[in-house]
Write a structure and sequence with these properties.
single chain; mainly alpha; 54% helix; globular
Length: 71
């Protein structure tokens, strides 16, 4: 399984794990369905919404848990 990092581009994350759109929206990160531009890394998007490094790592952990449970 490929590991998700804070450097992953949002576009790449969404292409690899389409279900991540709903999760990110629940966390307030990049409203893809609302037409907000999707550019940059997961870290950049999260920091723009006020997330700190620990919260970003929690996002990554949650996405990886989702992947493990849905393989």
């Amino acid at each position: 399984m490929e590991i998700i990092t804070k450097e992953i581009l949002i576009e790449e994350l969404v292409n690899k794990i389409p279900q991540s759109v709903d999760y990110l929206m629940k966390k307030g990160i990049v409203c893809i369905r609302c037409g907000e531009p999707v550019w940059g890394t997961l870290e950049t998007a999260a920091k723009a919404k006020g997330f700190d490094d620990n919260e970003i790592q929690n996002l990554i952990n949650d996405i990886e848990k989702f992947l493990q449970n849905n393989l």
